[in-house]
Amino acid sequence: MRKPLTGNLSNFVKLRKLRKNDLKMLRFWRNANRKFFFNKDVVSPKMQINWYYDRYLKNPNDTIYIVLYKNVPVGTLAMIKHDNGELEIGRVMLGEKKYARKGIMGKALELLLKLYEENNTDMKRFFLEVIRTNKSAIEFYEKHGFKQIEEKADEIVMTKDI
């Protein structure tokens, strides 16, 4: 088991919004981790460019963040605002596996939740969907205050009140 990093991770973990020049890295990470996504198809460069311009940039309620550790991109998190007062967490992905189980993604999730809690007082709760067999992800979310509220055929829905 890998040991968590020592020291105050708050000084080293940052979030920044996705940029166009992140797409190649994002596609590589996504394809390498596709078994953890509901859509397991390999994403081609053309598919990604179409998604980026035709869907992502046109949806102001969907924001992907690159997780940085000491200014090095290591993963992603996303937040999608819904009209019903819920904030959906998605695209949680550790792209650089050498940083696994070091506390970096946990700190990044805490930063993301705090950012949206402080700036979205009209929102009611966070939710996410996770593949039922992804036990490590379920444990990760439970560690950060999420509760399982629904089980579907292939997924579990988890929430955290704001």
Give a short summary of the structure.
The protein has 162 residues and is an alpha+beta fold. The protein contains 4 helices and 7 strands, in the order E-H-H-E-E-E-H-E-H-E-E. It has a 7-stranded mixed beta sheet with strand order 1-2-3-4-5-7-6, sandwiched between helices.
Structure notes:
It contains four helices and seven strands; from the N terminus they run βααβββαβαββ. The relative contact order is 0.15. The N and C termini lie far apart (32 Å). The protein has one domain (9-161): Gcn5-related N-acetyltransferase (GNAT) (Aminopeptidase, 3-Layer(aba) Sandwich), CATH 3.40.630.30. It has a seven-stranded mixed β-sheet, with helices on both faces. By secondary structure, the chain is of the alpha+beta class.
Q: How much is the average pLDDT?
A: 91
Major beta sheet, strand line-up: 1-2-3-4-5-7-6
The percentage helix is 25-40%
CATH homology superfamily name:
Gcn5-related N-acetyltransferase (GNAT)
Radius of gyration: 15 Å
Instruction: Give the CA-CA distance, first to last residue.
Output: 32 Å
Query: Which consecutive residue ranges, at least 5 long each, have pLDDT under 50?
Result: none
Largest sheet: 7 strands, mixed
If classified by CATH, what would the architecture be? Answer: 3-Layer(aba) Sandwich
Kindly state the number of beta strands.
7
Helix/strand-derived category reads alpha+beta
